[in-house]
Amino acid sequence: MLPEFFEFYNPTKVVYEDGVATDLKPELDIIGIKKYFIVSDQIINDLGLIKKVTDGLVEAGYEVTGQYTDVKQDARLNDVQTCTDQIKSSGAEGIISIGGGSVIDTAKASNILFSEGGDLVDDYSGAHTLTRPLKPHVVIPTTAGTGSEVTMVAVIYDEENKEKLAFVDKFLLPNLAVLDPQMTISLPPKMTAATGMDALTHAIEAYVGTQASPVSDSFAVGAIELIMKNLVNATKNGDDVEARGAMQIASTMAGISFSHSMVGCVHGMAHATGGLYRVPHGVANGIFLPYGMEYNFEEIKEKLTRLAPAMGEDASGLSDDEAAKLVIEAVRKLSRKLNELDALPLRLRDVGVPEDGLAAIAEGALNDGTSFYNPREMDEEELLPFIQKAY
Amino acid sequence: MGMFKTTEKLEEVLGGFFKLMADTPVIADKLLKSKLVIRFSYTDPDLVVVVDCSGEKIDVRPHDTDSKAIVEMSMSSDIAHRFWFGMVNLTKALTRKEMIAKGPIPKVLKLLPAIKPSYAMYPKYLDENGFEQYNITKAYKPPTA
Fold first, then answer.
1. pTM of structure
2. Domain limits at B68?
3. d(C-alpha A282, C-alpha A267), whole Å
4. Any A CB within 8 A of B94 CB
5. What residues of chain A lie within 8 A of the CB of B107, using their CB?
6. Residue range A189-390 in CATH 3.40.50.300
């Protein structure tokens, strides 16, 4: 059945090649500016990844006007202001962000203030508040999970008010996403597994979400197939360039998919668990994913059956119920393999969540904006048993 | 030209409906829990209405352009009208900029289940208060005022 309405919009140019992050001249020449400011974090700096990129930029005749490497876990409002001040005073004409979701989101939010001025929260938080393109933003992801390099969203944590602020705008879509497996080679197994499960959750929730379309579905299915074939290898053998590359491409495809069709209750539970117990987002998504699929089972089972081939499962001859359960079991099998590599916890109890905190997770999930897009109308009492199972 | 010909008529219809929702516990109780202050800015015709859920009772304040709102929702009067029939896909409206939402979007989305009963209330309210011509669930008749 076709959706009543959908829009597909992705002006971000995506380039993939082993080593391409050190040779961006052809892409940057098209963008047409010469002075770039780097946004990243300390770990990426220590790994030497920033230097790899900036050496290539300088060699190609580009000027690096400065770098901000103080982005912390969860992009923070105060960091955005500091980062913006440094970008402005450096004389940059555009931004290159090198990092994971927090770095990319900090760069996106900084670009709003860099390009437009004003007050980030009062003037721009919300949906589609910008009226014209921002300054050029090039993204080089160093994880394979967030998908932020191709989404129109930035999430910024307001420490003072203890809330996450969402900025949703087409003009936040970066100009260029650079997928270079060399930038993820040094990602440790636990981060590889967690960010990979984040990408899988993006793809599956986007595929079964209320805003899904045939276009977003095609990206979701492509992402799922790549993840199922490559996440274990990327986790087990960090130097496997092919697996790393496949995971980066999958993460970007999943990002394109969920940027259009949104995510649901798995993200709602993960957001609540992250907020309450500081469980990393990808880990929480990995734990909750099969339980969220089971919570939505009746609403999504027919569509889930079609995922079997992408999950590497043969569902021929099975009923819808059986085939959909096979797909959920395939997610569990993947999680177990990652767990056997000591890369992914399987239960909430293993990540410091107290048993008496489960009800608060259910409440938080209901209050999360993602609940609006979940295929099954969410109910706290009905959701709680699934969280208890995940415990 | 939109469905409402004057600001006065828009205020009478939508302002009256907001006040009805404020007096309807099944909706008001959940809105009050949100503590949100929402400013609706309508165009064609123009009208500003603040719905203040920060106190013990919901306060509906037409023409309040001064209060600090947590959420600002801008849209045409026709989109607002259709919204209260449950005929507007919020995601689509935001994507196409038929609505612009400033502020914490998740908090706005969270309110949608709370206001669901209003979709059935709105046509009934129009019929019972002499605004039948605005009830677009019936065969459309041009408004007389």
1. 0.91
2. 7-129
3. 10
4. yes
5. 369
6. no
